[in-house]
Structures are given as C-alpha cells and as structure tokens.
Write a structure and sequence with these properties.
- The protein is mostly helical and 204 residues long.
- The chain has a single domain, classed as Tetracycline Repressor, domain 2.
- Helix content is 75%, strand content 0%.
- It is built from 10 helices and no strands.
- The longest helix is centred in the middle third of the chain and has 27 residues.
- It is elongated, with a radius of gyration of 20 Å.
C-alpha cells in the first residue's frame, strides 16, 4: 500500500474506526471479522492492517470511543460538580441519559458485555483497563463524601464504586428497551436505594 499523507492517513483511520464502531457495537468482538470491516469500509484488508496491527487493536480504539461517549454523558457533569452527593446523583441521571440515547444504548452490548465471545479474556482486559480510572474517581467521590460527613458507610469505597458500574451495566442490559418514563422512575428509585445504602445524610 502506498504511503498516505498525514491528513489522508488520519481520515482513513477515522473512517475505519467509525465503520468498525458500528459493527462491533451491534455484533460484539467475535461477531465481526477484519474482512467484513474492510468490505464495509470499502478498503483492502492490507489497508486496515496498515493502520491497526490486529482486530484487538481496532476493537480497543472503538472501546475508547464508547468510553468517551460515556464520559460525556456521565462523568464530565460529575467532574464539574464539587458536592459528593450531587456528583453521585449525576451518575444516576447520566445513566438514565445513556439509556434514552439510541446511539449509545444500541451499541452497549458490544462494548460492555462482549456479546458473541466464547473467551472473554480480551474484552475483560480492555474493560478493566478502560474503567479502572473511573472506579478510582467514583471511589474518591464516595471517600470525600464520607470525610465531610455526608455519607456514613463503612469500609473501602472501591467495591462500592465498582458496584455502580455493575448497576449501570445491569440497567443497560435489562432496561434498554423500556419507555423513557419507566427508565426515569426506575433510575430515581435506584438512586434513592443507593443513597440510603451509603448513609446519605440530608442537610437540615
């Protein structure tokens, strides 16, 4: 393959990622082949391997795209807020926004659950690598809330932070086809239960 200019190479790489993102999101890692991505991209397999060393490398780039969208919906609003209780409430409202966004929720299975894989080692490795930073951030929110007396839970906050991810994944798996009003009601109820579980103290 002839060497492309910097701008054209970037455009080709972006086109491959955009095409693969949709395919992986709908079919999961094992449900998509490099040949199918090449055909959908209208490129040769050699062109794909010029930009990505293997399918795992391309999948990881697509997973980063999905994570970026999750950050926009959930974590960026949390970072802008300084009060731990409000930060956690934004996690639940952000999850609601994910569930009501067809562009996100329709692809969730391919990235959060690794549909189609008999061996999930690759998917789990990517998920752990990508979500470790978010676990740490959520744990810090919980810890800060306890330090200032808003939360009264005991023990390490990290497992509680991980439970939030498990909760979000469960919601996406079970609720992604529910009407928006039911999603709204359910997420409010889950936030209420979680807040009580961490001992959220209402200000007088």
């Amino acid at each position: 393959m002839a060497r492309q200019t910097g701008k054209r190479a970037h455009q080709t790489r972006r086109h491959i990622i955009d095409t693969a993102y949709t395919l992986f999101g709908h079919k999961g890692f094992d449900g998509v082949s490099i040949q199918e991505i090449a055909q959908q991209s209208k490129l040769s397999k050699g062109a794909l391997y010029w930009h990505f060393k293997n399918k795992e490398d391309l999948y990881f780039e697509c997973l980063k795209e999905f994570r970026h969208l999750l950050r926009e919906k959930i974590f960026l609003p949390m970072v802008k807020e300084v009060k731990p209780a409000l930060q956690l409430s934004l996690f639940f409202s952000g999850t609601r926004d994910v569930l009501t966004d067809p562009l996100l929720v329709d692809f969730a299975a391919g990235y959060l659950f690794g549909i189609g894989r008999s061996d999930k080692d690759v998917v789990n490795y990517f998920r752990e690598r990508m979500f470790a930073e978010s676990d740490t951030f959520l744990a810090s929110v919980l810890s800060n809330g306890r330090d200032i007396g808003r939360f009264s839970f005991e023990g390490d906050p990290l497992p509680i932070a991980r439970s939030l991810w498990a909760l979000m994944e469960g919601c996406i798996l079970q609720m992604r086809r529910q009407p928006a009003d039911e999603i709204e009601e359910t997420m409010f109820a889950l936030w209420d239960v979680f807040a009580k579980g961490i001992g959220l103290k209402l200000k007088k």
